[in-house]
Amino acid sequence: MIAQTERLFILTIALHFVCACVYSEPFVSQPSTFVRN
Q: N or C: which end of the chain has fewer CB within 10 A?
């Protein structure tokens, strides 16, 4: 159970990191679009 939660946490952090990298430019130009998604 703990291992599964830890894996989910790592995947969530990785997903946010990838999204931050991909949407870095739109976030700078249009913050509202990033917040809405």
A: N
**Nearest-angstrom CA–CA distance, 37 and 25:** 15
Distances in Å between the Cα of 32 and the Cα atoms of 4, 28, 29 are: 33, 10, 9
Query: CB under 8 Å to 37, separation ≥6 — which residues?
Result: 23
Of 24 and 16, more confident? 16
The answer to whether 28 and 20 are in contact (CB under 8 A) is no
Residue 29 confidence class, pLDDT cut points 50, 70, 90: low
